[in-house]
Amino acid sequence: MRQEREQEERLLAEIEEGLRDPDIAWQAVRVALDAGLSDRVPRLLHRLWRQGAVTDSDLATVLPEVWIHNRRPLPCLGERTWVSMFKAAGFMCRLEQTRLFGEPDYQVGAFDVSLHDRAPEGPLTVYRGASLASRGRGLSWTMHADCARSFAEDVGALYQVPVGIYRAALPGRAVLAIFGDVREQEVVINPNMLRGRIVLSEEMPASFDLSQAAMSWVQRMRSR
User: Fold this and answer.
1) Cα–Cα–Cα angle for 59, 83, 169, nearest 5°?
2) Percent of the chain topping pLDDT 70
3) pLDDT per residue over 169-186, tens digit each?
4) Are residues 96 and 85 in the same domain?
5) Which of 29, 86, 90, 192 is within CB 3.0–4.6 Å of 176 for a Cys-Cys bond?
6) Cα-Cα-Cα-Cα dihedral of 189, 191, 195, 199, to 10°?
7) For residue 117, which phi and psi values (nearest 5 degrees)?
8) Of 174, 217, 169, 177, nearest in space to 196 by CA
């Protein structure tokens, strides 16, 4: 047990060192992913940033890797800390036009792929699949209602709770980042700008197909 802890700490030290260099940070993130240590990486990055070891400019390169390759990034740091780092990095967009795993459930249109080489200037309609208890609040949204529905179905099946599809019409300045590929297009939103703008479009009962939800989750993680 002691040896395992020591090995883990050595690996975390190597990952932390890799995060300091934006040219190889993606390698450090993937090492953490393979070792089951992804949940530890956001705190490492935040500490390096607070210490000045990672600059705001470097953060724009490293932060997308850390966010995308984490199944549940929000609990790792909390909403306020994530927002502060996204703001420091400035608007970020990373869109992959190649399919990495499996067949996409729907296609991202060429308009979506080409639009966001800069922060959106006009209003944007985004969707989110989440539990009814959450009332739709969160950083992670999507441009596609079908994608939100898929997430809602997964949440309902995995946690056995009623879920819904939420919609919000937001000004462009609310968008912190856009990440995606042909399977989905994630829009990271400043949650402080959601107040009064979230609409529950559809309520859905909890699903009992746990196997399908688990497979959907695995495919989504592998496609990132």
Assistant:
1) 120
2) 80
3) 999 999 999 998 666 789
4) no
5) 86
6) 50
7) -80, -5
8) 169
